[in-house]
Amino acid sequence: MAHFLGVDTGGTYTDAVIVDEAADLVIGKAKSLTTRADLALGIGRAVDAALAQSGVAAADVALVSLSTTLATNALVEGQGGRVALIFVGFDEGDLERGGLIEALKGDPVVKIAGGHSHAGVQLAPLDIAALEAHLRDLGPQVMGFAVAARFATRNPAHEVAIRDLIRRITGRPVTCSHELSAQLNGPKRALTAVLNARLIGMIDRLVSACERHLASVGITAPLMVVRGDGALISAAMVRERPIETILSGPAASIVGARWLTGAKDALVSDIGGTTTDVALLRDGLPEIDPQGARVGGFRTMVEAVAMRTSGLGGDSEVHLITEGLLGGMRLGPRRLIPVSLLASEHGPMVHAALDRALASDKAGDMDGRFVVPMAGQTGGLSPRELTVLERITAPMPMAQVLTTRLEIAALERLVARGLVMISGVTPSDASHVLGGLDAWDASAAEKALEILGRRRNGAGERFSTEPKALAQGIVDQLTTQTVECLLEAAFDEDTAFAGESPEVLARHTLTRAALSRHRGVIEFTARLGVPVIGLGASAPYYYGAVGTRLGCEMILPEHAGVANAIGAVVGQVSQRATAMVTSPGVGRFTAHLPDGLQSFTDPEAAMVAAETALTLEASRRAKLAGAEDLRITTARDLRSALVEGQPMFVEATISVTASGRPRVAHAVPEEVEL
């Protein structure tokens, strides 16, 4: 009998489940607060509690699989370490495309000569000498490097040479764009490489934390990690390609939703502390986004489930809009530490600061807000940022940290680097005031909401004089924004609205009128045509109102709060290798293979050679990722043109996928005849 351990590390909670594989049953589950300063603590508490509840011995765990939203959250919130981009053969205009400048956030870029043509022929020699001087200066200032060379997917030689040089001179992690995607579009590949490099430190800390605790309790089973497309890969592989874990948690939640409910057609909506993730199940399977995962405003080249991720969660920042006579409210996209949670751990300090703010007649912008130091690298910080960071020696009121308004920008930079977190009012606090949640300090939440309600709108009136009224307004706003998330996904998937903006349609006056069952000279009625599967620990509290608003069936499975952890251990390992076959001239065909270019005089021979090489490469990756009993599937995407009525080969994309169940511990090797 095999027992599997699934772990999901989110922004607020870390979940663990024990699944009896033979019986398809959850026999143990637990939640623990995610401890960002030392992730092993939160992981350990959840794992130990789940093992204790299940009665399964650590030595009997045959497989461990990890999903996480940390990478997704970091991109949504604009966080991550400082990196440098080595940009080879591109011009200044290429930096402006695909959101690359926004993703860099002022991090250094080194542009050097080099690159190849679309046929894989070198356009200019690689200027290694110019790069060496830059690397000696940049090495101490950044945590990693991203390398993107022109047409590297057709010939990766320049990226490989630069990777080797960076490792020799700096010892820092390096991400090459051709290793993440076989597609064209250099700036978009560069963006994906930058984001990957920025996430390496974070995911390495997570995997190391999980491995440390597993070793300490005697679990020797292989550790797998969920990719953004729901497939599993080994922990060793994910350390080099952490970008593949964006949408890991959401992908695991879809797999978990299908396993828990058996539903074939439904919208799956997973609310966490930081994000709400929505995807469509069609015939029991999610779609893979052909354009690459989209997270936090960035469109990457990472294959992932077709998922809409919004910066809306139980711990989203509450923004009061003071413009206009009546003002308004908006939630997210940044995650805060709820005041009620901070008070449950640092009660005397939090209550003293809240009481001081309540004793004053003036409503300050920093009242009811706190700062909390986090672990991380400080390279590349400005003197002002370092000065602010040095003051934050423990959780403390924000007003105690900032001496001038000029330091606000410095604090925001520290938050973006993940070195500091802010605590303030969130929907979780509102839920504690209303009695929907009771895990943390409700009295601190009530004080914080009273302070927030003192702020004034354009008419000079307070937003609220009663904490419960403001709390209800916050929960209602969460309902409104969740409905918008679901409608965006629905309009995007409904072919009748192809070409229209789902964001506009979801918020259109007619849509709102139809959902409200408007009855006047014109009558409107609308409802969601598929059920919604609500996942997340807080879904039972928030999603009843969402289902009512959308007029649809709301499915809340028994283990909705740990669906991600369940999905982590019921998936498959899958690796795909892709290559191009091009025709640089009449009667000439080039296969762009993982180990270089090969020329042929026949297109079929070139494609067969590509399939053979890709089968070896996909199988190698799948075995490295932890798979056994591989299944191989091959696909060809041919492009041709009619010339004098006859089809002429233009190019072909060859893909080979190797998939299988992950290797588990305690397997008995087959006997081999010698």
TrEMBL record:
User: From which residue to which does any coiled coil extend?
Assistant: none
- Which Pfam families does this entry report, sorted A to Z? Hydant_A_N, Hydantoinase_A
Q: Which residues form the Hydantoinase A/oxoprolinase domain?
A: 189-322
> What positions does the domain Hydantoinase/oxoprolinase N-terminal occupy?
5-169
User: From what superkingdom does this record's organism come?
Assistant: Bacteria
InterPro entries, A to Z? ATPase_NBD (IPR043129), Hydant_A_N (IPR008040), Hydantoinase_A (IPR002821), Oxoprolinase-like (IPR045079)
Please give the name of this protein.
Hydantoinase/oxoprolinase N-terminal domain-containing protein
